[in-house]
Amino acid sequence: MSISNNLINRSSFSAADIVKDIWTSLHLPPHALSSLSLPGHQAAPATPSSFKIGHLAQSSIALSALSASLLHSTRSSPPSSIPRVSVPLEHALVEFKSERLYDIDKQPLEDPWGSIGGLHKTADGYVRIHDNFPCHALGTLELLGLPPDASRQDVAAKVAHWKSIDLETAGTEKGKLAIYALRSYSEWDAHPQSTAIENSPILVRQLAQGLPKSLSTVKKSSRCLQGVRVLEMSRVIAAPVAGKTLAAHGADVLWVTSPNLPNQPVLDRDLSRGKRTIRLDIHNPDEKERLLELLRTCDVFIQGYRPGSLASYGFSPEEIQKINPNIICANLSAFGPSGPWSQRRGFDSLVQTCSGMNVSEAEHFGAGEAARAMPCQALDHAGGYLLATGVMAALYNRSQVGGSWVIDVSLAGVMKYLRSLGQYPGKTGFESQDFVKQADVPTEYFETRDTAFGKMTAVRHSASVEGCEVGWEEMPKPLGSDEAKWL
């Protein structure tokens, strides 16, 4: 049944239904579903939004944990039963805001957002400007004919003379900026990119055939992904969540950042938990060769850069497969691998804006706002957990039929799936509790650990796997602190 355009109607789905739907689409063993427990699941709103974010949080984290449990069951000789997995709803929702709910030495977090971004009124509507990275902020000011020290008020005055689509086009067509027009559902549904997005949020394809390659045999009590090597080249927030999730289940994750690009310290500290960190410049021949050597000997390559950007340096899945025939390449993008916007950059807040979500959320809230953002970066977080799920599904496939695999997850694909779950009527979705600060969160959801920056109190992982250790060993440290080699 279609509720709009080619959107499937999943409005009756529970979190368990979502898990079953996506699990089945990945062709994973159906008997594994009986090992999953979802405490606290409810049909009622679980966080203040018209969207069913609680369903999405609990199911996406559950999918990643159940995939890890499935892999663990294949690593004993003979294969064992699938360990039971539990993901409580409230804890999952809290983890969807983990980058906002930690502290170091009890000091408040700095604001990670820039000074000129957000929603701006245009001559015929609104646009949202993303300014977290200096290149985006400075590029936007240059496009508007403003100096580098211009204020938000200066930006608003200039934007007011533009039509929304004209400014979006000028900012995004060359792939350099992150500016999108505010659209309604009907406007988004009429756009060709809308129909280019698949109804399944995880796309898995075999890149090349090969002999089966199983993960090494481990003890029953070990971590699910012990010994799995993951190379991550990513930026905020979704792709880093994928690497962080794999690390929580024991993978050796090497997070590669560039010395030429700005970092986001506030976000990085949460998202780097569980990872070792190295810095490599792919413009430097020696450092590029070091990266290639790591790729030759890893299991998984995660990348979250704008589609095509790493491929232009020789890091496409096809090129990597030539040096590693068993590689699993996992891509996180804004709009997916198909359609006129497939090469565009984008972020959670921008996909919410251009797809009609912000308009619909505002209409449900009923306060006369032009747009209303969701209470968390739900597309980012769900995208990360779903990408990790796709990676583990590919690891399972590799153990059964062999070959190399490509995984694609997009923020727009997550948006489409979340929208397909339907919305709570009127303002009813906004009557639930939110988790804005640490004092709002049950203390048992936190852990306190020593880091290179001080004592960090942060949200622990919400999934548990019976008989297996889940959580992070590596703690945040300055970028580039580790050696570029596998453990």
From TrEMBL:
One of its GO terms (molecular function) is catalytic activity. It holds the Pfam family CoA_transf_3. Belongs to the CoA-transferase III family. This is CAIB/BAIF family enzyme. It comes from Trichoderma gamsii.
